DNA sequence: CCTTGACTCTCCCCTTACTGGATAGGTTAC
DNA sequence: GTAACCTATCCAGTAAGGGGAGAGTCAAGG
């Protein structure tokens, strides 16, 4: 019989941990002095402790280990659990790799001294849900006249909503369709979308649609005038490529803070690119 | 200005988390109603929130992020932190891979239906410290006479300790030197070691030495008679190979529960192999 | 027999990054 | 006016222990 300190030295497991395992029902001492409460462990229990540690090293939680060891350890159950654990560990590993890659990409960009946008624009990944909107779609003949075209389109969708008794809600969303290089020679197809409440029907110029959900989009925030927005696009597109993603759908801009003819330096715009791995 | 719920929807960050970040000093609302306590966020704050999330996605703790963002974010500091983080993440990744490999090895062995020893012998990795012992070294002519040889050697070391006024402490340790196949033709060189307290000098047959420490040893526990010990050796050696390790020193046996001429079924022996990766 | 130092006991708080719940007050739409 | 919804604060809990306080135990030396 070993006292807890001796058993701790034998097993290289801390006294605190042994007491914790006792309390958790994982490893009850072979004997407990009824008067002093002293725990006494037998050498045989080292085998059980080793088993616990081995399972823990495979990533099982103490709760799972306790379930296995106490309620009859059928190897089949263990097999099933470890299969699940294997899948889970692979997912964790993938996440860990992605995380490391993000850090490495950042460091590489830093060493190339392109830190100006990097610190300005933080790119994050998140999901977006579907959004029901009224959309006015159109084509801007070129980049110069994009702003005018969008103003006109947003006017149309807002007018339609209010005219039909609906109410505008949330911020305007610009969708950029068809950004592939071969088709943009005949202009930029864009959609001006507004969320609303109430009943709104399609009109000749506007349609009620659902902007699709995406499980993973890359997002960044641009502060200030639209004139500098290309910096944000540079940053986000570079990030997407460097981290091993690919654009997988039309990108959007959310005008989070925007008032036509207001102070452009106060504008806040979120840029979203649907992406997928590799 | 957005109320916390709206800001939560915009950012895909839960209300609870926003309140938590407020309390942590990471993201104070742009404005707080003095009477109601309502938090109001500005669209500009989305940029800061994105920055927080981006840093979090690279594995920084909220405390580190707060330090960076509040006490002036010098890109150089961030660079230094991320370098450290990179190393840390690489270590984590290696650990994760090893963990996954342990699970995979287990599953493979299971499918080969060699589960009998597998469940009997759990192999774990741990460090061992140096141990100061009195050692009697000798050579057993063959496996048959190993037991007799060891008995003699242990008698010698124990006798020397007690004769010199020292006291035996802890369990006996058998060290197996020179297990390479080319040299074991002339017998097995073994050492019988006992820890002790007090002053003990070298004698003609025994020496006071330090058993070296090892940062990583594979260990398993064998319960019962020495006659079945080969099963434990099978299990541990197979584990060592399958998990991509290699034996890197003389193995030891610790007689955790042992009394000569006692009930052999009660013996408990720990087998230790110093190992290294690949 | 007494003391001293090393061990051990229980109990409580702390860690991370939140989540959930209870209860109370505020806002808004019908 | 009231119901539905939103927000606030406070408390508790998570996994796997670590740290420490205060009190009791044990073994050896004098």
Task: Describe the protein's topology.
Two copies of one chain form a homodimer.
Chain A: E1 2-3, H1 4-11, H2 15-23, E2 31-32, E3 39-41, H3 45-57, H4 62-70, H5 75-111, H6 115-120, E4 124-128, E5 131-140, H7 146-163, E6 167-177, E7 188-197, E8 206-211, E9 214-223, H8 229-242, E10 245-247, E11 251-257, E12 268-277
Antiparallel strand pairs in A: 1-3, 2-3, 4-9, 5-7, 5-8, 6-7, 6-11, 9-12, 10-12, 11-12
Chain B binds a DNA duplex (30 and 30 nucleotides) through residues 3-5, 14-17, 19-20, 24, 35-39, 56, 61-63.
Features:
homodimer, 278 residues, alpha+beta, 9-stranded antiparallel sheet, 3-stranded antiparallel sheet, elongated, DNA-binding
Notes on the protein architecture:
The structure is a homodimer. With about 280 residues, chain A is of the alpha+beta class. Helices cover about 40% and strands about 30% of the residues of chain A. In chain A, the strands form two sheets. In chain A, strands 4, 5, 6, 7, 8, 9, 10, 11 and 12 form a nine-stranded antiparallel β-sheet that branches. In chain A, strands 1-3-2 form a three-stranded antiparallel β-sheet, covered by helices on one side. In chain A, strand 2 and strand 3 (about 40) form a beta hairpin. The longest helix of chain A is centred in the middle third of the chain and has 37 residues, at about 75-110. In chain A, about 30% of the residues are buried. The model of chain A has no long low-confidence stretch (mean pLDDT about 90). Chain B binds a DNA duplex (30 and 30 nucleotides) through helix 2.
């Amino acid at each position: 019989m070993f006292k807890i300190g001796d058993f701790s030295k034998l097993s290289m497991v801390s006294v605190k941990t042994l007491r914790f395992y006792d309390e958790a029902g994982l490893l009850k001492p072979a004997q407990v002095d009824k008067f002093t409460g002293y725990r006494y462990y037998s050498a045989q229990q080292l085998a059980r402790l080793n088993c616990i540690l081995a399972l823990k090293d495979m990533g099982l939680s103490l709760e799972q280990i306790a379930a296995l060891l106490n309620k009859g350890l059928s190897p089949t159950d263990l097999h099933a659990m470890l299969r699940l654990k294997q899948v889970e560990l692979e997912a964790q590993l993938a996440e860990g790799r992605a995380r490391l890659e993000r850090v490495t990409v950042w460091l590489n960009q830093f060493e190339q001294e392109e830190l100006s946008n990097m610190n300005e624009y933080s790119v994050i990944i998140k999901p977006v849900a579907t959004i029901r909107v009224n959309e006015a779609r159109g084509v801007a003949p070129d980049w110069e006249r994009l702003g005018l075209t969008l103003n006109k389109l947003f006017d149309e969708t807002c007018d339609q909503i209010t005219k039909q008794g609906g109410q505008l809600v949330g911020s305007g969303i610009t969708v950029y369709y068809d950004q592939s290089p071969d088709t943009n020679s005949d202009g930029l197809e864009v959609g001006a979308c507004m969320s609303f409440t109430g009943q709104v029907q399609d009109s000749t110029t506007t349609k009620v649609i659902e902007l699709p959900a995406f499980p993973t989009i890359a997002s960044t925030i641009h502060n200030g005038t639209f004139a500098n927005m290309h910096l944000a696009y540079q940053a986000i597109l570079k990030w997407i490529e460097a981290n091993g993603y690919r654009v997988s759908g039309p990108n959007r801009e959310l005008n989070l803070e925007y008032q036509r003819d207001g102070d452009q330096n106060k504008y806040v715009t979120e840029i979203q690119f649907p992406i997928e791995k590799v």
